[in-house]
Amino acid sequence: RVATNARSHRFAIGLAVVAIAVTAWVVMRPAPPKPSTSSTPSDATPPAAPTKSVAVLPFENLSRDQENEPFCDGISDELLNLLGKIAGLTVKGRTSAFSFKGQALADTEIGQKLSVAYIVNGSLQKAGSQVRIMVRLVNTADGVVVWSDKFTDELKDIFSVQDRIAGQIAEKLQLKLTAAPRATKTVNPEAHRLVLEGRYHSSFRTTEGFVRAEGAFTEAIARAPGFAQAHAGLAEVCVMRANYATQDGASGGDVQADIKRARIEAQQAMAIDPALSEAYGALAYCDYMEKHYEEADRQYARALALNSNHSILYAWRAMLRLSQGRLEDGVRDLEKTIELDPLWPVSMSNCADMLLCVGRVDEARQLIERAMNLRQGVFAPTLSVRAKVLMAMGRKEEAIETARLIRKHLHQNPRRGADETALWTLRQAGL
To answer: What is the pTM of this model?
Structure first.
């Protein structure tokens, strides 16, 4: 399904930059200590789920119109982000939670895979100007529904509905909803729909996806100029497009224009809603792209103070740490990303790359094998890290085989850093 492909690439946002930079660094650094050469990664037992932990699964779309799928997923995603602002609550990331969409797995099994004590699931239906949401809070230890409720409200009041749902979940978990009041309690329903559509198209991280997302966010702003989420969404689209263009070797006017526009839109979002962590994250990424590293650090800190469960922000900040030469700090950020998003192979690959740089080779080996097991098909960036790990371990023949596999399938995902790593591996092997 198209939606499944979107989820699998959802958070591969600029992380190829890590692989490119680390590749160059690995070439120049002394060889790390030689680790154990066991070829099978340990099957680590998932950690015990924290008692205050939850995952929000994608809601079932009960609307007859399947075009409402982005809206349905978007509402689940917004609830996930709202719960992420509750102090004392661990909320698993979207990539991992949404990976179960369409799978007939028991909540107990999902809870074990995600290491969470509770699952939030339910269904959604749009009918005219109204939305009907049914929500359940399930204890993953025994599959018992500890709370459920139905909400029927006007689409313009969707934020208020989400606040009520999050508040009741927090109450059941004996926590307090600590998010700042929404900048607006009512929304323009069409503008809100467009924002969710924009996020959906942006998630593909393709040229067409960026164009369609930009159009949706721009139209949302035209309909509701004071809608902070629309400005923040457009900011992210622009800075991600600039990042991808830079990875592909572009520079100059178009890249700078996108960064400039992203900065303006992020600042506009922050002016409307100072509690919107996504806006600070987009602004931090602009600063990172323009090498204003100290300012980027401050903006990431502000973003994470507003939502400490935002897994992608830790991954983004890890790239900043790498550029600052703070490798151990970068590893910690990526380890936090994996803790929050345990089924996201991209973050595992990048964490394995940085673990290799700091000499933790056996940990890098185990992590890259986990990433390989989660990823279907051939994904060159993950294979490139595996090749470097194998070379560091002295397993030259396996590294050569991996490098050749990268070059054979490079047309499927032509990342410059992966090809550079493959060529470096073959040169190191004397080929």
So the answer is: 0.87
